[in-house]
Structure formats: structure tokens, C-alpha cells
Design brief:
By secondary structure, the protein is an alpha/beta fold. It has 2 domains: 5-121; 127-398, Alpha-Beta Barrel (TIM Barrel), CATH 3.20.20. The protein is built from 15 helices and 14 strands. It has helices at residues 5-11, 21-30, 38-44, 57-69, 89-102, 107-121, 163-175, 197-214, 228-237, 254-259, 281-299, 318-326, 346-351, 361-373, 384-398; strands at residues 14-15, 48-52, 73-76, 83-87, 127-129, 132-134, 141-147, 180-184, 220-224, 241-244, 265-269, 306-309, 339-340, 378-381. The strands form 3 sheets. Strands 12-11-10-9-8-7-14-13 form an 8-stranded parallel β-sheet. The chain has a 4-stranded antiparallel β-sheet with strand order 1-2-4-3, sandwiched between helices. Helix 11 (281-299) links the parallel strand 11 (265-269) and strand 12 (306-309).
């Protein structure tokens, strides 16, 4: 039985390792098992750990029976709704098939685990964005930001410049190594005023039409908008990706517009009004992104076209932003490419002693590299040349030594 986005969202499987040890400890104690759970963490927690929710009591009993038989351990909440699985990778490798074989009642559970295991264990499958193939795993991709706005938080708004000058800026980003160019005509900074669709279209359409013919064929063109009307016009102008800060859950017409354009990719960002979360912020972010995948699937959008974004700086405090970044690897359980936008955010400025946007380069690069190391596939950035160079060095460690370096001799006695 193929896994549906609804079933995937129900179980919300999150890989917890490799990751902060204190998160694994907190997850175990939150189940209500108390200190008795800690010896099990010492015995199994250095192997693999996955958190799940939404289970029925009979599913939990079957899971306990099968997984313990494979050499793993299961910690569960008092009502059996939530579990923490601890064990060797070999046990996890066998578990999905065993659950499927058990019967229809646990078939979806096995498929949800298989999806999370695949997401954690390898690079996401390529995304074909209207003919531009975005490949992941070999290196971290870079999305260059082009804000055609007068009030961009990052101080890089290009409103007032003619389309030719804006296009030249975007083309220079592509030449510097950007894999995607993201054009936005409405600021999404805190307390910004919503721009009417007509004004947003007047800002972005001339630029998008020019860029559609000016960018190299391997570079994807993206529109950053929350409005279905703007997205529809942008798709007609030739964009390959719609970047929706409300993750298909804002404008009710957005899912229909994206679905009507076969091949168009979509970035679904996590967002909410306010910073109140009922529980763990990372679990809430993962759950919200799964809801976006459910909306996409119900609208007829192939989830293979969806890229997810945890939405750093949107409905989150600085501490929450850093916690999401610290535990970014948990989003690998969604088995979708992960885009991260930390460039020039106010959190970076706070970490650098109140630095203004134009002085946040070093902090943006540092957090961007950490995002790539923790599972980010695409970085959305303002400083493209510097980011590309930083990632070229970082990816040689994160994703493997480049082939052209293997046969290079030592440069000298000092290395």
C-alpha cells in the first residue's frame, strides 16, 4: 500500500540521532517513564533513535513485540500514543517489512517508518522543476535572494531600479554559483504591511519575464509570494518554483494554482502567527510541514515536487530559531529536500552584538554551514559568492572529498 501524506503526518516519525543527546533524554522522560528509562538510553541510545506519535494502543503492542524481537527497545507513553524506538540500524532495517507482513493494521505504520529511514539515510531524490533538475547530496545548493521591495529587512531591496539593473544583479548571482534565483516583491519582515497583488505584480513581473530568458538553463527561477494570483502570473512568466511562506496553507487558491502547473516545484515553509507552541518547537515545525504535504497531496500536487523550509524567523523567537537549526536533522524524516533561510536574519544580528544586516556576513556563513552539516540541502542567501565559496570548502567535509582532489599531491612540507 503506497504511503499517503495523511498517514505520514499521523505518525510524525522523527530521527533523533545523530543529534543532541539532551533531546533524546528529554524525549524519553516526556513519555512518563521517569528515570527508569535512562539505563535503556545508555544501552541503546548510541545506535539509532526514532520518535513517533499518533499510534493506537494495538499498534504500539505490535510494535513492541516485533521490535524487541529484532533486538531493539520501545519506550511508550502511558496511553501508548507516543513511542521512542531505540536499537541497532539492522533492527530498524527489518522493522518496516515486519510491520507490513503483520497485516493491514500496521501496513501504514511500516511505510511511515520506511519513509523516515530513507530520508535519514540518504540524499533526497532530485526535484524536476519544469525541466530544471535540482540534484541533492553531492553539494549544498544555493538560492540567491532578489528583493524588488523598498522595505526588505536585509537592506538589499532593489525597488526603484529598472528591471535591466535587477536582472543584471540576478545574473551575476547565477554566474557566482547560485542554483536558484528567488524574486520577491513583498517584504515578509516582522510588522511589514501587506502589499496589494497589483503592486506586487508590477514589481516582480517585469523582472521575472526578463530573467526567464536571461538565466542559464541549469538555474531555476523562483517567485517568493504568498498570493495565488501572483504565483499564477509568475508561472505564466516562466518561473520554475513557487516559494510560499505559508506552505500552501495561507491563500486558499495557492494549492490549485500550483497543481494546475505540472512540473512546477513548490517550497512549503513553516509559519504561524505568534510564537506560542503547545510543546516542543521542532516537533511542531515537523508536524506543520507534514500538514503542508497533506494539503499538497489532496490538491493533486506530486509531493516529489515539494521542498520544505522550517521557516527560521517566522513565528519563532531567536532561541527557537537556534533550536530548530540545532536539530535540523529531525526534518530528514519527512524525506523531502530541506531549504534553510538564515541569511542576515535578526537572530544573526543578535548573536553578533546587534550588528545591522549589512554586517551579518560572518554569522550568516557560520550558521549556513552548520545548517548544511545538519541536513540542509539548499541555503537561501543574500551573499551568493561568499556562500558558494564557504560551502565549497564545507561540503568537501560534509559530503565527501571532491574527486579532483584525490590525486593531488601534498602541496609542501607545511601542508
Amino acid at each position: 500500500m503506497p504511503l499517503t501524506a495523511v498517514d505520514s503526518a499521523r505518525y510524525g516519525v522523527r530521527p533523533l540521532l545523530p543529534g543532541p543527546v539532551d533531546v533524546l533524554r528529554s524525549e524519553a522522560l516526556a513519555l512518563g517513564a521517569g528515570p527508569a528509562a535512562l539505563p535503556l538510553l545508555a544501552r541503546h541510545g548510541s545506535q539509532e533513535a526514532f520518535a513517533m506519535r499518533g499510534l493506537a494502543p494495538d499498534e504500539t503492542r505490535v510494535l513492541e513485540r516485533i521490535f524487541r524481537g529484532l533486538g531493539g527497545e520501545v519506550l511508550s507513553s502511558l496511553d501508548g500514543d507516543r513511542v521512542l524506538l531505540l536499537g541497532p540500524l539492522s533492527a530498524f532495517g527489518d522493522l518496516p517489512a515486519r510491520l507490513t507482513e503483520w497485516g493491514r493494521r500496521t501496513e501504514a505504520l511500516g511505510a511511515a517508518l520506511q519513509e523516515a529511514l530513507a530520508g535519514k539515510g540518504g540524499a533526497p531524490r532530485p526535484v524536476d522543476a519544469r525541466g530544471v533538475l535540482l540534484r541533492f547530496g553531492v553539494r549544498t545548493l544555493v538560492m540567491g535572494v532578489v528583493n524588488v521591495t523598498p522595505d526588505s529587512f536585509s537592506g538589499d531591496g532593489l525597488a526603484g531600479r529598472d528591471a535591466e539593473a535587477v536582472v543584471a544583479t540576478a545574473v551575476a548571482m547565477a554566474e557566482a554559483g547560485a542554483d536558484l534565483i528567488d524574486v520577491g516583491g513583498e517584504s515578509t519582515r516582522p510588522h511589514s504591511v501587506e502589499v496589494p497583488a497589483e503592486e506586487e505584480l508590477a514589481r516582480v513581473l517585469p523582472v521575472l519575464r526578463e530573467l526567464a530568458g536571461a538565466l542559464p538553463a541549469h538555474v531555476a527561477l523562483s517567485v517568493d509570494t504568498r498570493k495565488a494570483r501572483v504565483a499564477e502570473a509568475a508561472i505564466e512568466a516562466g518561473v520554475h518554483v513557487v516559494n510560499d511562506v505559508w506552505g500552501l496553507r495561507g491563500d486558499p487558491d495557492m494549492p490549485r494554482v500550483v497543481a494546475a502547473s505540472p512540473g512546477c516545484a513548490v517550497v512549503c515553509m513553516h509559519n504561524q502567527r505568534g510564537t506560542d507552541y503547545p510543546g516542543d518547537v521542532v516537533e511542531a515545525v515537523a508536524a506543520g510541514l507534514r500538514e503542508s504535504l497533506v494539503v499538497a497531496e489532496k490538491a493533486g500536487i506530486d509531493t516529489e515536487r515539494v521542498i520544505v523550509d522550517p521557516g527560521l524567523g517566522f513565528g519563532k523567537t531567536p532561541a527557537m530559531n537556534l533550536e530548530v537549526l540545532r536539530r535540523l536533522g529531525e526534518l530528514r524524516g519527512l524525506a523531502r529536500p530541506v531549504l534553510v533561510g538564515i541569511s542576515r536574519k535578526s537572530t544573526v544580528g543578535m548573536l553578533l552584538g546587534g550588528a545591522p544586516p549589512e554586517q551579518r556576513l560572518e554569522g550568516s556563513l557560520a550558521l549556513g554551514v552548520l545548517a548544511a552539516e545538519r541536513g540542509g540541502d539548499i541555503l537561501r542567501v543574500h551573499d551568493v559568492p561568499q556562500t558558494v565559496r564557504a560551502l565549497r570548502a564545507a561540503d568537501a567535509v560534509i559530503r565527501g572529498v571532491p574527486a579532483d582532489l584525490h590525486d593531488e599531491p601534498a602541496p609542501g612540507p607545511t601542508g
